[in-house]
Amino acid sequence: MKIRIIILCLFMLSTAVAILYASRPEIVPIRQELGGLPMRFDGWEGRRLPDSSQRVLDILGVDDYINRSYLRGDSPAVSLYIGYFKSQRTGKSLHSPLNCLPGSGWIPVRNERIIIPVGNDEAIRVNRITIQKGAVRQVVLYWYQSQGRVIASEYSGKIYAVLDAMRTNRTDAALVRIISPVADNAPSKAEAEEASEKEAIEFIQALFPMLADYLPE
């Protein structure tokens, strides 16, 4: 009987603590709006892509986003999408491109994770997929970013959101996605994909140091 009472008391205490954390006003960090991200940097020239429809924005649930293409020299343009959530406590959550792209007709034909050096002896681990629609292929690199962390796994991102809610009273996070087209005039498919991936990686290496102002630690 005593053991049951102790277990019941511990359960009630843990429930009270959980309710206390859930009821606290969430901290939303100060940051710059994503629209302030430079259009020109390190030889890359940006162009704004069409805004998403309100229906799409309602599905995504983002509080801030950008959708742009960036061109460097004679290489094909890469596209950049960043979707930011102030909070994930009210049913909003990060969406994996693997769930969204097939709805647009793009089929993932290769899926892995790669390591990208981003300077100062730092490297990030990101998702790398090849998608295909008919004869057209693209390389997609994406990750989730919250409180200074770069996270490849969607499930790890959800776990961190729960832990951060208790530890720092924050659940803000973002999806960062880069798409690089695969040329159809290369000697081989492998070489074409390698060139496309290289272009996306070099873009990320130029972009990443600037993200801290827009995706706060």
Per-chain topology:
Blueprint: H1 2-23, E1 40-41, E2 44-48, H2 54-60, E3 64-71, E4 78-85, H3 97-100, E5 107-119, E6 122-133, E7 136-146, E8 149-151, H4 154-167, E9 173-181, H5 189-207
Antiparallel strand pairs: 1-2, 2-3, 3-4, 4-9, 5-6, 6-7, 7-8, 7-9
In short:
With 217 residues, the protein is α+β, with helices and mostly antiparallel strands. The protein has helices spanning 2-23, 54-60, 97-100, 154-167, 189-207; strands spanning 40-41, 44-48, 64-71, 78-85, 107-119, 122-133, 136-146, 149-151, 173-181.
Account of the protein in words:
The protein is of the alpha+beta class and 217 residues long. The protein has one domain. Helix content is 30%, strand content 33%. The chain has 5 helices and 9 strands. It has helices spanning 2-23, 54-60, 97-100, 154-167, 189-207; strands at 40-41, 44-48, 64-71, 78-85, 107-119, 122-133, 136-146, 149-151, 173-181. Strands 1, 2, 3, 4, 5, 6, 7, 8 and 9 form a 9-stranded antiparallel β-sheet that branches. A hairpin with a 2-residue loop joins strand 6 and strand 7 (136-146). The termini are far apart. Residues 11-20 have low confidence and may be disordered.
The chain-level structural class is alpha+beta
Question: Overall mean pLDDT score?
Answer: 86
Largest sheet: 9 strands, antiparallel
Order of helices and strands: HEEHEEHEEEEHEH
Give start-end ranges of low-pLDDT stretches: 11-20
Helix content: 25-40%
> What overall geometry do the principal axes of the alpha carbons give?
globular
State the end-to-end distance. Answer: 48 Å
Q: Could you give the count of β-strands? A: 9
How many structural domains in the coordinates?
1
Q: Beta-strand level of the residues, as a percent range?
A: 25-35%
Radius of gyration: 20 Å
Helical segment count: 5
